[in-house]
Each structure stands twice: as C-alpha cells, then as structure tokens.
Amino acid sequence: SQDSKMASVVPLKEKKLLEVKLGELPSWILMRDFTPSGIAGAFQRGYYRYYNKYVNVKKGSIAGLSMVLAAYVFLNYCRSYKELKHERLRKYH
Amino acid sequence: MNENLFASFITPMMFGLPLVTLIVLFPSLLFPTSNRLVNNRLISLQQWMLQLVSKQMMSIHNTKGQTWALMLMSLILFIGSTNLLGLLPHSFTPTTQLSMNLGMAIPLWAGAVITGFRNKTTASLAHFLPQGTPTPLIPMLVIIETISLFIQPVALAVRLTANITAGHLLIHLIGGATLALMSINTTTALITFIILILLTVLEFAVAMIQAYVFTLLVSLYLHDNT
C-alpha cells in the first residue's frame, strides 16, 4: 500500500495541462521552461504534433495543407486589421 | 483610396520587430524533408515536381554548370512559392520589394559572370563582340554589349518586381471597382467580377511563370559562362 500511495502523487512539473487543477495553474505556468531552447522545443513539439497527425500519414488529404494556409491568412488579417478597419462599409469611421 | 492601394506593399513590422523575416521564412514550412524512400503524399508530390523541373532545366548544362543545380532549384521553389502565397488574401509578398529581388539577382548574375571570367577568360571577353561585325563599328558595339551585360541583373530584378506588383495592384483596383459598382449597376458589376476571376487565374500563371523565367535566365547566364 505504501507503493501505491507513492505512485499516485505526480509532481506538478510533469503534469499535462488538462490534468492541472485550476488552483495550481499559476505555479504550473511559472514552472514551464522559458529558456530559448525551451521555447524552441515547444515550437518543435507543436510542429511535429501537427505534421504527424495531418501530413505525415499514408493518405494525407488537402486539409493538412489548407489548415496551415487558412491560419496564415487569418494571422495576416490580424496583422493588417489596423489599416483594414478604415475600409468597412460604415457611414462614420 | 490611394493610400489603401499601396498599404499592402509596406514592409510588415510589429512593435518595431521585423515580422517580414517570419513571412519570408514561412514557405520553407510547406516543404518538409524526409529520409524515407516512400514518403507521404505532400513530399512525394513535391519530389516528383522537383525532379521534373530539375531534369528539364539542368539538362543543357555541362558538369561544371550542373553544380549549380541545388541553387537553381531552391531559387525556383522559393520564388514560385512566395509568389503563390502572395495571392492569398491579406498576405504580404516579399517579391514585390525591389530590394529583395536585387538581392537575389545581383549575386547570382555576378557569380555566373565571374565564374566565366575566371575559367574561360578569352571566351567571356569574346562575348562583348558578336561575330562578323564590320571593323568601324567595333568600339560602339563593345560599349553596347557592355551595357547590355550590366543591365542583366537590373532587368531580372525589375522584371520580377514589376510583374508581381502590377498583378497585385490590378486585383486591388478591379476588386474595388466591382464593389463600388454593385450598388450602381449590377450587370456591370457582374462583368467586372468575371474580369476579376480571369485576372486571378492569370495571376496564378504569372506567379509560376515569373519564377521559371527568373531561374531560366540565371541558368542561361550560367550556361554562357561555364
């Protein structure tokens, strides 16, 4: 019974986001690796997660590429919103 | 309207940080690499296309010229993908900036010319005088050939910039005209919309053709000099 008690307490650092309780959230965020190599690792993990799920499969469809392009269009829209909001069809800008 | 027309060609910065670097690097995300023999569909399609293009383009060169194969293939992929991505709404096209195109054209042209001068000096100098010119015309012709040599990189860069920029501007203008005409006369707006669709198809073709032309001309300058 001692062993089962030890195994059930997982240290905060190694929990995934969905397993972290709300009260522990600030301390969990602060414990993340914000060094340059840590951030690069996060981007690399994110890239491979998307790539292996949608592109690197036997019968990849056009959706894998289209989602990336749609996100690119959306980010460019956000970037140029400041100039675009003057072109809305409104009487008073 | 005038200010809006050219707003899409301003170099994107965010809080003083060059966002343009990320935009220039983005097409590389769409060309993954792999070490496998049989790849996923995306990579297989890209490899097939690349083999087709490289065989067609590098076949005219000798062994020395074919060492440039990697450079020329990267060039056509970069320009082609950048131009095509620029046709997406709201995106920024780096090849509309003359600075970038000059940065691509001048080193490549200079590399080809200097290679020619170093390895086949007499043959390179002989390019300045076409065969069978009458003797009195020689000085003038040498000057003309020199000018036409030095105008090559400028022409490469300006050709690409002008074609892509003009295409984007036309799309903006005709799209704006369609929108303005919708409330005035719907039939004319419909005709303008069809013109817009045809123009977009043309722009897709131009995007790829310009990449091809740029690379082909660099390859021709190389062929002259190896």
Structural summary, described in words:
The longest helix of chain A has 20 residues, at 36-55. Chain A has helices at residues 2-8, 25-30, 36-55, 62-79, 81-84. Chain A is built from five helices and no strands. Chain A starts with a helix and ends in a 9-residue tail after the last helix. By secondary structure, chain A is an all-alpha fold. Helices cover 59% and strands 0% of the residues of chain A. The radius of gyration of chain A is 21 Å and the shape is extended. Chain B has 226 residues and is an all-alpha fold. Chain B has one domain (7-225). A two-stranded antiparallel sheet of chain B has the order 1-2. Chain B is globular. Chain B starts with a helix and ends with a helix. The mean pLDDT of chain B is 87. Chain B: The chain crosses the membrane at residues 6-31, 67-86, 98-117, 137-158, 164-182, 189-222. Chain B: It is found in: Mitochondrion inner membrane.
Please state the overall shape of chain A, judged from the principal axes of the Cα atoms.
extended
Work out the helicity level of chain B.
over 70%
Largest chain-chain contact?
A-B, 22 and 19 residues
N- and C-termini, Cα separation of chain A:
70 Å
Q: The biggest beta sheet of chain A, please? A: none
Assess the beta-strand content of chain B as a share of residues.
under 5%
Give the SSE string of chain A: HHHHH
The unreliable regions of chain B are none
How would you describe the oligomerization state of the chains in this entry? Answer: heterodimer
Give the topology string of chain B: H per helix, E per strand.
Answer: HEEHHHHHHHH
| Count of helix runs of chain B | 9
Decide which structural class fits the backbone of chain A: mainly alpha
Shape of chain B: globular
Task: Summarize model confidence as the mean pLDDT of chain A.
Answer: 82
Structural class of chain B: mainly alpha
How far apart the termini of chain B lie comes to: 50 Å
Count every beta strand of chain A, where a strand is a DSSP E run of 2 or more residues: 0
Mean pLDDT figure of chain B:
87
Largest sheet of chain B: 2 strands, antiparallel
Organism (chain B): Ovis aries
Main location (chain B): mitochondrion
Catalytic activity (chain B): H(+)(in) = H(+)(out)
Family (chain B): Belongs to the ATPase A chain family.
